[in-house]
Amino acid sequence: SSFLHTLWSFNLYAEHPAVYGGPSGSYFGYSVDFYQASTDSNTISVLVGAPKANTSQPGIVEAGAVYYCPWSGPPDSCRQIPFDNSNNRMMKVNGTREPVEFKSHQWFGASVRTHKGKVVACAPLYHWRTVKLSADKEPVGTCYVAVQNFSAYAEYSPCRTNDPDPEGQGFCQAGFSVDFTKEGRLVVGGPGSFYWQGQVMTAGIAEILNGYSLKAMLRQVPGEKHTRAAEDTHDDSYLGYSVAVGEFTGDSEQELIAGVPRGAQNFGYVAMINSTNLTFIQNFTGEQMASYFGYAVAVTDLNGDGTDDVLVGAPLYMEREMESKPREVGRVYLYLQMAPLTFSKPVALTGTHTFGRFGTAIAPLGDVNQDGYNGMLRVKECREWK
Ligand SMILES: *[C@@H]1O[C@H](CO)[C@@H](O)[C@H](O)[C@H]1NC(C)=O
Ligand SMILES: *[C@@H]1O[C@H](CO)[C@@H](O)[C@H](O)[C@H]1NC(C)=O
Ligand SMILES: *[C@@H]1O[C@H](CO)[C@@H](O)[C@H](O)[C@H]1NC(C)=O
Ligand SMILES: *[C@@H]1O[C@H](CO)[C@@H](O)[C@H](O)[C@H]1NC(C)=O
Ligand SMILES: *[C@@H]1O[C@H](CO)[C@@H](O)[C@H](O)[C@H]1NC(C)=O
Ligand SMILES: *[C@@H]1O[C@H](CO)[C@@H](O)[C@H](O)[C@H]1NC(C)=O
Ligand SMILES: [Ca+2]
Ligand SMILES: [Ca+2]
Q1: Per residue in 74-84, pLDDT tens?
Q2: Is residue 36 part of a domain?
Q3: Is residue 114 part of a domain?
Q4: Could you give the percent of the chain with pLDDT greater than 70?
Q5: Which terminal CB of the chain, N or C, has fewer other CB atoms within 10 Å?
Q6: pLDDT higher than threshold 50 for residue 18
Q7: Which stretches are FG-GAP repeats (predicted)?
């Protein structure tokens, strides 16, 4: 079955790994994606996030960075991509010039994603001063996009708005998760909005680049769509902790998939969201309380039948064997799409190492060995990365 295939091809792929290095203590490798400058270029490279790396930004400590690593190059061939060279912006507040943003320790590069030459990377712990007179620093998060092989950049900070505080978008942490639709529209998760109900937004890259100015701190990108605050029973559920995109309704319009790992009374769930009007369509619900079901999500055609399938990670899943202590091993659930909006019962893959947090990250690698299946997966388990 394609399911076994997934496991075996994993070993095959690990035989000749490409190895890259970054500054020690920079968390180099926290996020990765493949990058192809354009569809007609046959060189593939790897983008590697290092969210605690120092940069050349004056006066800023450990802003975080994304590295460009040629494939396949020597381990020291990676170079920082200059998404943002600038210091904290200043503004005249109450008669004195003060910084209005705080880029030190912002975790830039915690997420990075590519789509046909477009790149997005985010800093979910970017803080700004808020619109209030009393200077509150709030972790709204921010993202930068790059196009034309890193010759044009723009910032996109959808939660830096005039709706601050925990009840608004002040603690949003936009860019905690990020993805692209097949048309190249950006999908951003911000799990801290609205007392940590969380939020998902989408925006077009062309609209983000058009009329972009460093001076516009508060900017509404034309055509941006976002989910809204719900009743307070949804507080602390973290919608947007993870995001992905796929087609699940039998038409050509893709749906959004978003993890809500503390929703559904802490069982966690994954929401399917209409990408046209951002309303909720249906849920996949977790199996075990506090397992963090929805910590990671991925979409790929696992069985090669032409339909998108869904994978969900629950890295804190505990295995309970009879008469023994529960072991925290983590689980990944596979949902095969049988028909529009109809899925198989989930198949569970369980981690083997206690505290290995199997399912922390799931990355479809596509049909790397050209056998017609997208069965190649990289499922992150902590031991593998030490
Ligand atoms: C970044 O620079 C600061 C100050 O120079 C230093 O203390 C810190 O260890 C550096 N961090 C990394 C990850 O290189
Ligand atoms: C604005 O400046 C005045 C005069 O320096 C000061 O009394 C007041 O507290 C300041 N207000 C805020 C909100 O910082
Ligand atoms: C794209 O940018 C990278 C990094 O700056 C550079 O090494 C590469 O040669 C560029 N590729 C093309 C096709 O221009
Ligand atoms: C999504 O919303 C649009 C706009 O209301 C609607 O036309 C479409 O049928 C919806 N799709 C699904 C799958 O509900
Ligand atoms: C979104 O689309 C769905 C499906 O067509 C519809 O039921 C719902 O009312 C729409 N919501 C909004 C806010 O337009
Ligand atoms: C998804 O689950 C949440 C939490 O149980 C619930 O509030 C919501 O109504 C569900 N949505 C759908 C579309 O079933
Ligand atoms: Ca659809
Ligand atoms: Ca399929």
Answers
A1: 888 999 999 99
A2: yes
A3: yes
A4: 89
A5: C
A6: yes
A7: 11-78, 94-155, 160-212, 279-344
- Tens of pLDDT, residues 276-308: 999 999 999 999 999 999 999 999 999 999 999
- Judge contact between 34 and 27, C-beta under 8 A: no
- Domain carrying residue 90: 31-380
List the 225-226 sheet strands across, edge first: 177-180, 185-190, 199-204, 225-226
Mutate to test the pocket of ligand 6, among 269, 281, 285 (most ligand atoms within 8 A of CB): 269
Cα–Cα distance for residue pair 131/269, rounded to 1 Å: 34
Q: How many domains does the chain have?
A: 1
Q: pLDDT per residue over 82-112, tens digit each?
A: 999 999 999 887 788 989 999 999 999 999 9
With respect to residue 163, please indicate whether it lies within any of the assigned structural domains: yes
- Nearest CA to 334 out of 379, 292, 273 is that of 379
**Is 17 inside a domain boundary?**
no
**Phi then psi for 4, rounded to 5 degrees?**
-65, -40
**In ligand 5, which atom is closest to the CA atom of 277?**
1
Distance 191 CA to ligand 4 centre (A): 24
